[in-house]
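Re: beginner question about structure tokens

> Can someone show what the tokenized structure looks like for a real chain? I only ever see the sequence side.

Sure, here's an example I had lying around. Input first:
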Amino acid sequence: MPDIFVSLPGEGEKDNLNSGGQIKIEKTNSHKIVKIHKQFFSSYLFMPDDVRFETQAPGESIILLLRRHWITNFVWVGTGFLLIIIPIILVPTLVISGLIPPNFPGSFFGLTILVWYLLTFSYILVNFLLWYFTVSIVTNDRIVDIDFINILYKKFAETRIMRIEDVTNRTGGFVQSIFDYGDVIVQTAAKEAMFQFGSVPHPEKVVRIINELLGKTGEKEERI
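And the corresponding structure tokens:
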């Protein structure tokens, strides 16, 4: 798995977004471990401390790092949980009902359970990695979209902020309204005509922040 973004040791930088897309950088001398842990699994990071990605240029600051909302993981998390508990429930039931004969080879039975759990945890791990490494990044200079199609293949696209023509958000349905997530669509004049951040948290905030970078709003600062 390629190193998309990493936490950096040492002295960090905390960035503040001012009106007109100007970036103010303040030095900090310490890092809170708890905050870093929260950043590790977060779907919405606003100006994250000590995080960078593999193609980040010197002086380029991350404004937003977005993943799909955690609620979108419900299907594979639920499926993984069921796959874990199925042997725990099924095996005693088969033994009590007599469907497994007393002389059934224990080694074959144990091997079957082992393979089952290896496949189950592989399924969970792959889905987690695809969620974690599929990210959309907004910096003070560009937008970067990294989509992992599978564990071995990724799609990388980027465009400069100055090439953005329009930013809109799309939210529909009860679940998206309750959990405040949706799609953000970025229209550009670049080769990649459209960028879509799928099922990201706080889509209205994301649109407002990008518009601030474009100098289209008079908001002074975005706070979480």
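Each token stands for a local structural state, so reading them left to right follows the chain. Helices lie at 33-41, 74-97, 106-133, 174-179, 203-214.
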